[in-house]
Design goal:
The complex is a heterodimer. Chain A contains 18 helices and eleven strands. Chain A is of the alpha+beta class. In chain A, the strands form three sheets. Chain A has a six-stranded mixed β-sheet with strand order 2-1-3-10-6-11. In chain A, strand 4 and strand 5 form a beta hairpin. In chain A, helix 6 crosses helix 7, helix 7 packs parallel to helix 10 and helix 17 runs antiparallel to helix 18. By secondary structure, chain B is mainly alpha-helical. Chain B has a two-stranded antiparallel sheet. Classes of the chains: A alpha+beta, B mainly alpha. At the A-B interface, helix 1, helix 3, helix 11, helix 17 and helix 18 of A face helix 3 of B.
Chain lengths: 431, 331
């Protein structure tokens, strides 16, 4: 009896301790091999954001990769953009980011400065070929003198128009001009549509349009040190300029909310939309089979001759700093960025390929050709890219968009919105 | 329950030690093994409790204490937390209109939605209590929404139903009420959310039904003999005898309503829109924590929520005496 009780106690304590300790096991990292050994069996995690269409393309690319490197197993997972970053945030906190990630420019600084991304410099020119990548493309992925990301592709700010709706409204394509001209043109389309659709939406809800105007004036959104290049007055002026669009010319905010997560443009409710020029394929898919082409023209002009536009990486590839297989991961990144197979499979799904070998192999469909021609046509307006976005830029971009929707609903005045944005900036920039 | 058993063991140990020192020494001397046995039993008791204690401390107490600490810091997940004192709390109440709005709509949702849910559940429970034929079917039918109500698919269906030109809009237009879509309208989306929560009254209803079945038929018969009409019977018999169940449902309903998240997240696509009118407090703190990386601020919001819920529960318990009648109570 006495013994049995003691035994029971021992068993109970041991079980409890075992359960407690189970959570603490693991965590040791293997010493990385000096060069990549193609015979080594390796498994890599790959994470990207996108939709079914892109997931299918990634599957094809991985299959092509495996023909060359059969011993590297790639487990790919994908999410929509906001969820993708929520997941990465928690993984970053837990120190288990996926080996290879599709990455967004606005998070590059934050992750790089916190040492979460692998320094790629040792692999440049070795495993990762640099000949097909122009220097200005390579510079995009450099934070604090260290290369942490390789741009897969580039895009530029542009304006899509809907030819079918324009014909219905009986209005010619926007022929270029100032922001006021654009607003007037939207008004004509809205009048011609007779309530069925609108000329566009309130462009002042997007921080990128503000940036284009600031750049034209020789300023910027944020400097490298996170100083804003605008004051309350300038922001108020910008939001005021959208008032006529909010008062009848543009699509009512309520309609926009109802079609979410789609937008007004890909729901055929607006005839124009200012956005990144690689959004065309997604818009065509959203609009359905009756659409085969879209208009793609330059954004309105703030100042003649200003270099207000720039080429931005539409996405990059990065490697987690704590990957067990940096060489294999670098091999995969090189394949996804540079290989002709990758160029052929992705086309412009991820933007216009940044690598010359990938671009040469990409079969450009009419839309992709249009994007390429568009980027050539705005060459005069392309200036230097701004520094890698400040930490917390994503939060500010979202706050800007949110205040834009509230202006659209009329639930906040321009002055209040400006105050709120500056309060948010104060928190984010001093974090 | 387990907490109680822990305490029993501890006090048992203390009292035996005390008794050892004082008068009962002769008895202990007569059984020399007892002291050792008590200690062994205590040890075994703790041993068996270890898995639960690990969970309790590892998953509840320590994370809670840590989040309390984080609420006084600026913490972006990546770099270590920075102590900033009460700044998060000050910011919440002085310079964050989004938080104030979020708190307001959450309070409206809770204070309007919960009583309506309770009344709807009670009415349906009483109807189902009268009719016996087919009652099983109707009980299941009314309970079904609560089974699936929290799920993703239902929120998506509601979104579609209440859009412009959706079934609800069209039906109302047929009667000459032209409201347009509810989902994108800041004035109508909150009523829609309340409607969704009321619609999921099934669990509350089942508990009410069980409570109603407990009320002795004789009481109604006696009241009827005394000439009490249906309303009076309801007021003087049903409500007092059902009051413990009402109290239980009210408490759970209020606490549950404060935690509304999934339906708001799906209906607004995670944005809390239109114009922040579905940005309930849990959704807001989630976005602050995980989208904006302001974990310290999110923790502070969570603690304010916890304190508010605790105060409401406390007040409810205090009012219990004046309106809740437990059987065997002589009041």
């Amino acid at each position: 009896m006495f013994n049995r009780k003691r035994a029971l106690a021992a068993v109970a304590i041991a079980t409890g301790a075992a359960i407690a300790l189970a959570g603490c096991a693991g965590g040791s990292t293997a010493e990385p091999a000096a060069t990549f050994d193609p015979d080594e069996e390796v498994t890599l995690d790959l994470a990207f954001w996108g939709n079914d269409v892109r997931a299918e393309l990634y599957n094809e690319a991985i299959a092509a990769f495996n023909e060359e490197y059969p011993n590297i197993t790639v487990n790919a997972t994908f999410l929509a953009f906001p969820e993708f970053w929520e997941k990465r945030q928690t993984e970053a906190a837990g120190g288990n980011l996926p080996d290879v990630m599709q990455f967004d420019y606005s998070y590059l600084r934050q992750y790089s400065e916190n040492g979460l991304l692998l320094d790629l410099d040792p692999y440049l020119g070795e495993i990762i070929e640099t000949d097909p990548l122009p220097q200005n493309i390579l510079d995009i992925g450099v934070v604090g003198g260290v290369t942490t990301g390789i741009a897969t592709s580039t895009n530029a700010w542009g304006m899509f128009t809907n030819p079918v709706l324009l014909e219905q409204a009986g209005v010619e394509e926007f022929e270029g001009g100032s922001w006021e001209d654009y607003t007037d043109w939207m008004g004509e389309v809205t009048d011609g549509a007779g309530g069925a659709f609108w000329g566009g939406g309130d462009y002042t809800g997007r921080i990128q349009n503000f940036e284009v105007q600031l750049r034209a004036e020789g300023s910027y959104l944020f400097s490298e040190d996170g100083e804003p290049g605008f004051d309350e007055e300038r922001l108020a002026e910008f939001w005021e300029s959208g008032a006529p669009i909010r008062d009848g010319i543009g699509i009512p905010q309520q309609r926009v909310e109802e079609v979410a997560p789609k937008g007004g443009f890909d729901s055929a409710l607006t005839a124009s939309e200012l956005t990144w020029d690689n959004f065309g394929a997604g818009y065509l898919a959203g609009l359905g089979e009756s659409y085969t082409e879209l208009g793609l023209i330059a954004p309105p002009i703030t100042e003649e001759g200003a270099k207000d536009l720039y080429l931005k990486p539409s996405m990059l590839h990065t490697i987690s700093a704590n990957t067990d297989h940096p060489e294999a991961a670098a091999t995969l990144v090189n394949f996804l960025v540079n290989s002709p197979e990758s160029g052929e499979i992705f086309g412009t799904n991820r933007g216009l390929p940044a690598s010359e070998t990938a671009l040469a192999a990409a079969e450009l469909d009419p839309l992709s050709q249009q994007v390429k021609d568009y980027e050539a046509s705005i060459a005069d307006r392309l200036g230097d890219a701004p520094p890698v976005p400040i930490v917390g830029y994503g939060t500010l971009e979202e706050k800007f968009r949110q205040l834009g929707t509230e202006l659209g609903f009329g639930t906040v005045t321009v002055d209040d919105a400006v105050a709120q944005f500056f309060a948010e900036m104060d928190v984010v920039l001093n974090q | 329950m387990t907490t109680t058993s822990t305490r029993v063991i501890v006090t048992g140990q203390k009292s035996s030690r005390r008794s050892l020192l004082r008068k009962e020494r002769p008895e202990n001397l007569s059984r020399p093994g007892q002291r050792a046995r008590v200690r062994k039993e205590t040890l075994a008791g703790y041993g068996f409790l270890v898995p639960w204690l690990v969970g309790f401390f590892g998953l509840t107490i320590i994370p809670m204490a840590y989040s309390l600490y984080l609420s006084f810091t600026s913490y972006n997940i990546f770099s270590p937390p920075k102590w900033i004192g009460l700044d998060n709390y000050v910011r919440m109440f002085t310079s964050d209109p989004a938080f104030i709005q979020s708190a307001q709509i959450t309070l409206i949702y809770v204070l309007v939605g919960t009583p309506i849910t309770l009344i709807a559940a009670l009415v349906v429970a009483m109807l189902l209590n009268y009719r016996d034929k087919g009652a099983g079917f109707f009980r299941s039918a009314f309970y079904a929404p609560s089974l699936i109500g929290g799920s993703v698919s239902v929120a998506i269906v509601w979104r579609a139903m209440f859009s412009a030109d959706g079934p609800v809009d069209n039906s109302l237009s047929f009667f000459g009420i032209d409201l347009g879509g509810w989902v994108g309208n800041p004035d109508l989306v909150l009523p829609m959310m309340i409607l969704l929560s009321v619609w999921m009254f099934g669990a509350t209803m089942v508990i009410f039904l069980a409570g109603l079945k407990q009320i002795p038929k004789e009481l109604y018969e006696a009241a009827e003999m005394d000439g009490a009409g249906p309303w009076h019977r309801f007021r003087a018999v049903t409500i007092p005898l059902l009051s413990p169940v009402i109290f239980f449902n009210l408490l759970l309903g209020l606490i549950g309503a404060f935690q509304v998240f999934a339906s708001a997240y799906i209906i607004s696509n995670g944005s809390g829109g239109p114009a922040g009118m579905t940005n309930f407090i849990t959704l807001y703190l989630y976005k602050r924590g995980f989208s904006d990386g302001q974990m310290g601020y999110a923790s502070a919001i969570a603690w304010v929520l916890l304190i508010v819920v605790a105060i409401i529960a406390f007040v409810l318990f205090r009012t219990q005496k004046s309106w809740v009648h437990y059987s065997g109570d002589n009041r």
